[in-house]
Amino acid sequence: MPGNEPILKIRDLSVRFGRASIPAVNNVNLDLGAERVGIVGESGSGKSTLGRAVMRLLPPSARVDASTLDFEGAPLLTRSEKAMRSLRGNRLALIMQDPRYSLNPVLPVGKQVAEAALLHQKISKARALELAAEMLGRVRIADVERTMQLYPHQISGGMGQRVMIAMMLLAKPRLVIADEPTSALDVSVRGDVLRLLDELVRENNSALLLISHDIRMVASFCERILVMYQGRVVETLNRLDEAKHPYTRGLIAAMPDPKNPVRRLQVLDRKAINEAGSLS
């Protein structure tokens, strides 16, 4: 991990909902510096729950326990909701997977991006709109002035994702959690959105936690990969060819590989996975 002090430090993090006996996230440990780390796993493995636990955005029915959950050396679990609101969208940013459901449908795009500046910076509305226009230009929106007047339903999925990235990175956050940021996009624009996200995160010297079910995409983009299964991190990798756990190997085998086409993709061997335990 680059640097001496991690931006995000997690020890023994578990999340339970209601009276559930089995935790949705179970005993996760992570040190995250100014780097790109991916979390992969199938639906229900606990990836998004982990990200929302860090953001303190889980519902009241969730119980979050951790011996350490520190951001920039300060604990998150003991902070008040008011203190968390000052962090979210400022020092902590969450990029959701589908802009159609994340953007406010009754506000023009420009006003929504400008709100991020107004909430966390002592500036005028006019200056906030200027910063919004600048940031939309940074994310390669072609006709910025026109786009700022449009509503979310009037823009494409790829453009909406760029707007989300502009909004979340306007305040230059230290930690960015991107939850399936390309799943709602056409293949033709996924690579461009990821390159843009990488460029802005590197420029701000931020930490990026990329959550995805696509292990090959994460491996091509991130410096480390955490593989989650049933709420646990079962394996941590630097490269896919290091994979030893049956679950990780199963995820890789279940993804189409244009370089090595097969007639039928493999399915997960649940018995072998459950017997293997954790290798992380």
Overview of the molecule:
With 280 residues, this protein is an alpha/beta fold. The chain has a single domain, classed as Rossmann fold, CATH 3.40.50. The protein has eleven helices and eleven strands. A six-stranded mixed β-sheet has the order 7-8-9-3-10-11, sandwiched between helices. Helix 4 runs parallel beside helix 7 and helix 5 packs across helix 7.
- Class per helix and strand makeup: alpha/beta
How many distinct beta strands?
A: 11
By CATH, the topology is Rossmann fold
Q: Which range does the strand content fall in? A: 15-25%
Enumerate how many helices there are, as a single number. Answer: 11
CATH-level-2 architecture: 3-Layer(aba) Sandwich
Mean pLDDT: 90
- Give the neighbour order of strands across the main sheet: 7-8-9-3-10-11
Uncertain regions spanning at least 5 consecutive residues = none
Number of domains: 1
Give the proportion of residues in helices.
Answer: 25-40%
CATH superfamily: P-loop containing nucleotide triphosphate hydrolases
Order of helices and strands: EEEHEEEHEHHHHHEHEHEEHH
N- to C-terminal distance: 16 Å
- Described by the principal axes of the CA atoms, the overall outline is globular
The whole-angstrom Rg is: 19 Å
Largest sheet: 6 strands, mixed
Name of the level-1 CATH class: Alpha Beta
